[in-house]
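note to self: dont lose this again. the chain is below, predicted strucutre after it. 121 aa total, dont forget to put it in the shared folder this time
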Amino acid sequence: QVQLVESGGGLVQPGGSLRLSCVASGSIFSINVMGWFRQAPGKQRELVARITSEGSTDYTDSAKGRFTISRDSAENTVYLHMSSLKPEDTAVYYCYANLRQRYSAPSYNYWGPGTQVTVSS
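---
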């Protein structure tokens, strides 16, 4: 069994900062990628940021220069530090991980339940 748990969401004023955390636990052999998606009401789910096992990162254009993704591989944890937040960043943020539970098994995508981020004055 694999479980992803997010934390750190909440209400913040425009221009403020917030750090999201996600911990993967359970039977995990290796993690290929961890990252964050978000979905705002009436909009498609979009990739915000991801980080590979090698440490390479990708960001959506709107997040570049404002958001930073990092990881603690020993603890199977990924972080998303968000700065200069804007109202359009308001969404439910979902943590995901692509991982294998054992060497002989294929990799699968796993998702957390999501955490609400609201940017409003």
